[in-house]
Design goal:
Radius of gyration of chain A: 14 Å
Radius of gyration of chain B: 13 Å
Strand content of chain B: over 45%
Structural class of chain B: mainly beta
Oligomer: heterodimer
Order of helices and strands of chain B: EEEEEEEEEEE
Number of helices of chain A: 0
Number of strands of chain B: 11
Structural class of chain A: mainly beta
Distance between the termini of chain A: 41 Å
Chain lengths: 118, 112
């Protein structure tokens, strides 16, 4: 079984500043994927970034980047040049294809609510 | 491009009434389909998933059931709703042998 832990229920950042959201996970599989999803007030889940465990290079998508520490089972999300539109709930998630066949049974953390202030 | 439609957006139902939430995916064939529930202040919990027509796997024993009558249609049902069924329900899809799941806009269900 996999577990995902987000220990920061709420975070705040000023516009144009940088913020890092923390996530730790636990899995017994060697092959797995990690994701960050954003849930704005509309509540639709939006994929922000993904990281394959076999890749050492940290994933980057525009202002979003991750710090993937495989040995420590840590997967943090860094948001640079924060914008008002970044305000949302952010969920970390993990999936291991090996024990799910063709399905993507995501295990989610409890989320971090990010506030962006002027 | 692929799109996912989920309806209704909000629903208020009395205890003991039936439930039917529907989800359809466009622009892809033979997707994996999922129903998740999000309780207030918590993450998402996987309820059901389907890898093909008529194939349903349940993750959590509960008062709900799911069906997949067509390739790109996924339905969440209940014969008699309980107060504890209240929550935010999200349908999602993923490509076979791929890993990201893409979500619909969700249904806020309130059982009164």
């Amino acid at each position: 079984a996999q577990t995902v832990t987000q220990s920061q229920p709420e975070m705040s950042v000023q516009e144009a500043e940088t913020v890092t959201l923390s996530c730790t996970y636990d899995t017994s599989e060697s092959d797995y994927y990690l994701f960050w999803y954003k849930q704005p007030p509309s509540r639709q889940m939006i994929l922000v970034i993904r990281q394959e465990a076999y890749k050492q290079q940290n994933a980057t998508e525009n202002r979003f980047s991750v710090n993937f520490q495989k040995a420590a089972k840590s997967f943090s999300l860094k948001i640079s040049d924060s914008q008002l539109g970044d305000a949302a709930m952010y969920f970390c998630a993990c999936v291991s294809p090996l024990n799910t066949g063709t399905a993507s049974k995501l295990t989610f953390g409890t989320g971090t609510r990010l506030q962006v202030t002027l | 491009s692929q799109t996912i439609h989920q309806w209704p957006a909000t629903l208020v139902q009395p205890v003991g009434s039936p439930l039917s939430l529907e989800c359809t995916v466009e622009g892809t064939s033979n997707p994996n389909l999922y129903w998740y529930r999000q309780a207030a202040g918590r993450g998402l919990q996987l309820l059901f998933y389907s890898v093909g027509i008529g194939q349903i796997s349940s993750e959590v024993p509960q008062n709900l059931s799911a069906s997949r009558p067509q390739d790109r249609q996924f339905i969440l049902s209940s014969k008699k709703l309980l107060l504890s069924d209240s929550g935010f329900y999200l349908c999602a899809w993923s490509v076979q042998r791929y890993t990201e799941a893409f979500f619909g806009q969700g249904t806020r269900l309130t059982v009164v």
